[in-house]
Design brief:
Belongs to the kynureninase family. It catalyses: 3-hydroxy-L-kynurenine + H2O = 3-hydroxyanthranilate + L-alanine + H(+); L-kynurenine + H2O = anthranilate + L-alanine + H(+). Catalyzes the cleavage of L-kynurenine (L-Kyn) and L-3-hydroxykynurenine (L-3OHKyn) into anthranilic acid (AA) and 3-hydroxyanthranilic acid (3-OHAA), respectively. The protein is an alpha/beta fold. It folds into 2 domains: about 5-30 and about 280-390, Alpha-Beta Complex (Aspartate Aminotransferase, domain 1), CATH 3.90.1150; about 30-275, Type I PLP-dependent aspartate aminotransferase-like (Major domain) (Aspartate Aminotransferase, domain 2, 3-Layer(aba) Sandwich), CATH 3.40.640. Helices cover about 35% and strands about 15% of the residues.
Length: about 400
């Protein structure tokens, strides 16, 4: 049985703050600052360039990747870290497309995160492919015999709607297509089972539910059956089979190592490694049960106290990730009023109040404070201020 009181105590949560924005940026684990400081003072400062060997910096992307593998239903040696999520999306989709050279179609949905669609659109233009975008509920019906790659974010960033990974992967395979799954709102939030679902590629970020810090590196997974065949367009130095031979001809490394590109961000990866310590002893089944408990309680309390809000997430918890959205015509101003009271969620255009529930540190007390604060702000219209309507650079 997972001790969520223990995991909550592992985070540096500011006093007086109810934090429901871990689906955008997780809070700092208490051990992260000391771990990074020690890395800088004992490794970078003392070892200098020898740290790549002595401190294991070079092998860090695989070692950290192995720690994430357990959380996404993958195996040892199948996940590697580095670069940004957009780069990993590009690598995965380009490799999958190249493995189906006789097909042109990349299929995604309008609930996908825009960056993924931007990447796929640019790739399609470069390799003479076609990006098709359909409504989320129409994805299965749109899987056709001309499909090369199905590119889907498992949990919709706005609504929290969760695609059925196993069913869609099976349907894609039936027509000979490959799948790429973006786990940005899944890893650390829901029960992901990549091998069990027989997925082909998966990518994800680590600054959300995995709490790796702002700009934390992304990860990529490739099914073992494809690991020595996949060859992305973006081929970098660290993905060469012998990078320090400085061979001018690219020869891919074996397995997942070929998905490395540039020099790994050692400081950021050290913070992420500290964050992953919190996951030791955490059952993914317990995590999912806790997530459903929190989101169900929040929906019930908000709907009871805020009848004018419209639920923007699936009502069935099995079809929902670990986030809840409600619609309001002045959602941005309402969220700014909430934040001013120490209840931090976020806004998603055009009119969504989004609340992310992270079972490692959120509890039912957070649910009550957030729902009651939201009801109070709506009742007294304290959101109705000009300064709350002024959009910041980051919303």
């Amino acid at each position: 049985m997972t001790d969520f009181n223990r995991t909550r105590q592992a985070f540096d949560l500011p006093s007086g703050i109810t934090y429901l924005d871990g689906n955008s940026l997780g809070p700092m684990p208490t051990s992260a600052a000391e771990r990074v400081s020690r890395m800088m003072s004992e490794e970078w400062s003392r070892m200098l360039i020898t740290g790549w060997n002595k401190a294991g910096w070079y092998a860090q992307p695989r070692k950290v990747g192995d720690r994430i593998a357990r959380l996404i239903g993958a195996g040892s040696g199948q996940v590697v870290m580095g670069d940004t999520l957009s780069i990993k999306v590009f690598q995965a989709v380009s490799a999958a497309r190249a493995m189906r050279p006789d097909r042109r179609v990349i299929l995604s949905d309008s609930g996908n995160f825009p960056s993924d669609l931007y990447v796929a659109h640019g790739l399609a233009a470069a390799v003479d492919a076609e990006l098709r975008v359909v409504a989320p509920e129409d994805v299965e019906a749109a899987i056709s015999d001309d499909l090369a790659v199905l590119m889907i974010t498992e949990v919709d960033y706005r609504t929290g709607r969760r695609h059925d990974m196993k069913a869609l992967t099976r349907k894609a395979h039936e027509v000979g297509a490959l799948t790429v799954w973006d786990l940005a709102h899944s890893a650390g939030a829901v029960d992901v089972a990549l091998l069990d679902c027989d997925a082909d590629f998966a990518v994800g970020c680590t600054y959300k539910y995995l709490n790796g810090g702002p700009g934390a590196p992304a990860f990529i997974w490739v099914h073992p059956q494809h690991a020595d065949k996949a060859r992305p367009i973006l081929q970098g130095w660290m993905g060469h089979h012998a990078p320090f031979d400085f061979d001018l001809d690219y020869q891919p490394a074996a397995g997942i190592e070929r998905m490395r590109v540039g020099t790994p961000p050692v400081i950021a990866m050290t913070a992420l490694d500290a964050a992953l310590d919190v996951w030791e002893g955490v059952s993914i089944d317990d995590l999912r049960a806790r997530s459903i408990e929190l989101t169900e309680a929040f929906i019930a309390r908000v709907e009871a106290r805020c009848p004018d809000l419209v639920l923007h997430s699936p009502r069935d918890p099995l079809q929902r990730g670990s986030q809840v959205g409600f619609r309001h015509p002045q959602a941005y101003a309402v969220m700014q009023a909430l934040i001013a009271e120490g209840i931090i969620g976020d806004f998603r255009a055009p009119d969504v109040l989004r609340f992310g529930f992270a079972p490692l540190y959120n509890d039912l007390g957070d649910v009550e404070r957030a729902a009651d604060g939201l009801a109070r702000i709506l009742a007294n219209q304290s959101w109705d201020r000009d300064d709350y309507r002024q959009r910041a650079d980051v919303t």
